[in-house]
């Protein structure tokens, strides 16, 4: 029986029944999230993306960055399900986690070569896009390991621990590189900003960070040699897509509950991403935060999100992931409406309700992962988490589009000449995406799955 359906089978990371302390495999697994935050948070969000769009890289750097990341997202959407499927078939999930993680490390280190000059723009963009692809492929296999190291009574806490460590690890590293390399005129070892050396050395630090904290899971959770025999004949890329299409069609016919969850989660996860994507923009543009103030708020928000995610993992196991998601989304809707309605209150309003929003982002993300993990038949985790990545990428335009449209509507309603004066209306667009995701989630049944669609085309 699969760990996803058994009530008494213990994974390697917990004691039977899940009532004891976590074992080393769980902590080793969680440390991957802590380490991989170097690429996700520091490189993609806070440091390298800002560096590559600076004036040194030419007038079209912003637009080209968008195209590069859009292309990466398209490739992830196309290939994530079949890479997960092929890892499931070969029984080498750990191997492919290692391969893709090492590629992320290599890309992070190679970013050191990107000097602040227009001729290096596309080198930086191609490396950044490639890193995003490898990161997403690694995440598919990483998420697929969740059932291996947990039981139905611990899965929420295990997922919450990993996700929480990711939030906190990214901020710890950001503080290290910001105050050690980027902020001071002369950083550690005499490094300065000349020729972009502060940012470029930060890329090397990120590579070492990812490597160091990924090794525990790669060494601890090795593939079982007895399970390395491929499940069925080896198939090519074209046949992999045929299997995928047939599986999705059967999934729709026999297990629409899982399909509905994939759709609902794709929508509300995009809304959750929008909260962090536009939170800093809103803090600076509407509530008057300085650049330093935005960073301080970002640090506080991520720490709060990380700690809350770890804590809510207990609730996930006790009351179920759907209730955690619903409660989190409802609370976020309330806090977001307060940010909109009380926008004239200044920074105090944003500190209060912005941090309240941050409290519930991580728990909703983590519970979404455990909800799906409870539905997946044993041996098909990679394929279904690949679909999870694909559906998320497919609707990733929703929150940005809703943000921009809501600001335009706000400017028209209030009659302001400058749309920036109606920026706070953008939060309503993000909240609308969260609301739609919540409404799509409500009819989805918890802990109910059908094996036939996945098993038929395994």
TrEMBL record:
Keyword Membrane: yes
Keyword terms: Membrane, Transmembrane, Transmembrane helix, Transport
Bilayer disposition of the protein: Multi-pass membrane protein
Coiled-coil portions: none
Alphabetized Gene3D superfamilies for the sequence: MFS general substrate transporter like domains
Any Pfam family the entry gives: ATG22
Locations listed in the record: Cell membrane
Keyword ATP-binding part of the UniProt annotation: no
Annotated PANTHER family: AUTOPHAGY-RELATED PROTEIN 22
Protein name (Swiss-Prot/TrEMBL): MFS transporter
């Amino acid at each position: 029986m699969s760990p996803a359906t058994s009530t008494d089978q213990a994974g390697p990371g917990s004691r039977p029944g899940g009532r004891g302390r976590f074992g080393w495999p769980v902590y080793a697994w969680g440390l991957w999230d802590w380490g991989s935050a170097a690429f996700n948070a520091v490189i993609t969000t806070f440091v390298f993306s800002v560096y590559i769009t600076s004036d040194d890289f030419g007038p079209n750097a912003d637009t080209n960055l968008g195209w590069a990341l859009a292309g990466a997202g398209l490739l992830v959407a196309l290939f994530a399900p079949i890479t997960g499927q092929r890892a499931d078939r070969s029984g080498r999930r750990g191997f492919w986690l290692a391969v893709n993680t090492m590629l992320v490390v290599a890309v992070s280190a190679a970013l050191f070569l990107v000097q602040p000059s227009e001729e290096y723009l596309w080198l930086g963009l191609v490396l950044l896009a490639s890193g995003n692809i490898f990161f997403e492929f690694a995440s598919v296999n990483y998420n697929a390991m969740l059932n291996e190291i947990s039981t139905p009574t611990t899965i929420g806490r295990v997922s919450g621990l990993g996700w929480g460590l990711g939030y906190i690890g990214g901020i710890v590293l950001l503080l290290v590189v910001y105050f050690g390399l980027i902020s001071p005129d002369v950083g550690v070892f005499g490094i300065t900003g000349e020729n972009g050396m502060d940012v470029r050395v930060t890329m090397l630090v990120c590579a070492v960070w990812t490597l160091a904290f990924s090794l525990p899971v790669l060494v601890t959770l090795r593939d079982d040699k007895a399970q390395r025999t491929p499940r069925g004949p080896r198939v090519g890329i074209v046949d992999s897509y045929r299997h995928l299409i047939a599986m999705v069609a059967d999934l729709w016919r026999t297990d629409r509950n899982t399909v509905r969850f994939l759709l609902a989660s794709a929508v509300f996860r995009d809304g959750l991403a929008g909260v962090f994507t536009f939170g800093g923009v809103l803090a600076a543009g509407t509530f008057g935060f300085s650049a330093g103030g935005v960073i301080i708020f970002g640090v506080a928000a991520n720490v709060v999100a990380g700690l809350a995610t770890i804590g809510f993992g207990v609730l996930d196991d006790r009351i179920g992931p759907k209730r955690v998601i619903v409660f989190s989304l409802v609370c976020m809707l309330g806090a977001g409406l307060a940010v909109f309605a009380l926008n004239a209150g200044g920074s105090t309003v944003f500190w209060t309700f912005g941090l309240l929003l941050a409290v519930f982002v991580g728990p909703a993300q983590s519970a979404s992962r455990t909800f799906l993990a409870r539905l997946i038949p044993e041996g098909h985790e990679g394929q279904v988490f690949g679909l999870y990545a694909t559906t998320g990428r497919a609707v990733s335009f929703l929150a940005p589009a809703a943000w921009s449209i809501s600001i335009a509507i706000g400017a028209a309603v209030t009659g302001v000449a400058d749309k920036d004066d109606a920026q706070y209306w953008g939060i309503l667009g993000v909240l609308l995406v969260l609301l739609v995701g919540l409404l799509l989630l409500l009819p989805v049944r918890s802990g109910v799955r059908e094996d036939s669609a996945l098993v038929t085309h395994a």
